[in-house]
């Protein structure tokens, strides 16, 4: 166990940002924390990193009490912060050199540049970096001390798909080296692919914690039939379709969770025909339930609203 959080509470005025969280993170796993905006993810991560103080509760990191040993802990963890922007007139390489000096144990700067595909930008001033490059630099800084636990806060937000896959590779390589990764992300497919276990957080509380497959299997035995139709049937109408167990709608997009795909599919086609809407029926497909469906079911919200 490399992180143990017990009954953590953080209150801001009337807001219980973290409302009694307890969980453990195991050594060598990629642990994901997912939640809608304002769920309390950043507050939780920053308390574990020793950057904020909880109102109550206890955090143990690498066997040390975070309230007492925060300096010793900081040497052995890596936090992704928005610090590069604070030193706009340094080059990428200079910035990494400066920050290396804070740690007793460090990775060679060349290796970091290579890992994060920043070698070609090593002489570029921080203020001239693109958003994606800055993002990669902030991850490089989180890894500078070859940490046992790396906290990555939405490391791929705003990156194009190719660079995002590069970042996934970085995370997978770290895991292969036995490192622990604490990841927050808004991207469900990223969480599903990278995380060994995921905690879904809402209103400062954990509402589910399991492997991605476990979260899906315990919430959905059924498959999803998805389509767009304008105008679409109401939720009440959709629930009357044979085989339908539950439904989720968003504008013209419909998802029917069904335990009998052929029967429900026929009903969808018949509905469109009966209402002269066949030409309005788009993107009809059947899929397995995904983490996105679990999130919607548990929180009542899409992850990005
Ligand atoms: N320093 C602060 N002062 C007052 N309220 C705060 C402070 N920091 C966070 N909050 C509030 O606490 C709640 C949790 O915020 P937090 O940033 O931890 O959520 P989050 O899950 O990280 O959200 P996001 O996905 O938007 O980053 C929010 O309602 C937020 O407005």
From TrEMBL:
<dbReference type="Pfam" id="PF00005">
    <property type="entry name" value="ABC_tran"/>
</dbReference>
<dbReference type="InterPro" id="IPR003593">
    <property type="entry name" value="AAA+_ATPase"/>
</dbReference>
<dbReference type="InterPro" id="IPR027417">
    <property type="entry name" value="P-loop_NTPase"/>
</dbReference>
<dbReference type="InterPro" id="IPR050763">
    <property type="entry name" value="ABC_transporter_ATP-binding"/>
</dbReference>
<dbReference type="GO" id="GO:0005524">
    <property type="term" value="F:ATP binding"/>
</dbReference>
<protein>
    <submittedName>
        <fullName>ABC transporter ATP-binding protein</fullName>
    </submittedName>
</protein>
<feature type="domain" description="ABC transporter">
    <location>
        <begin position="3"/>
        <end position="228"/>
    </location>
</feature>
<comment type="similarity">
    <text>Belongs to the ABC transporter superfamily.</text>
</comment>
<keyword id="KW-0547">Nucleotide-binding</keyword>
<dbReference type="InterPro" id="IPR017871">
    <property type="entry name" value="ABC_transporter-like_CS"/>
</dbReference>
<keyword id="KW-0067">ATP-binding</keyword>
<keyword id="KW-0813">Transport</keyword>
<dbReference type="InterPro" id="IPR003439">
    <property type="entry name" value="ABC_transporter-like_ATP-bd"/>
</dbReference>
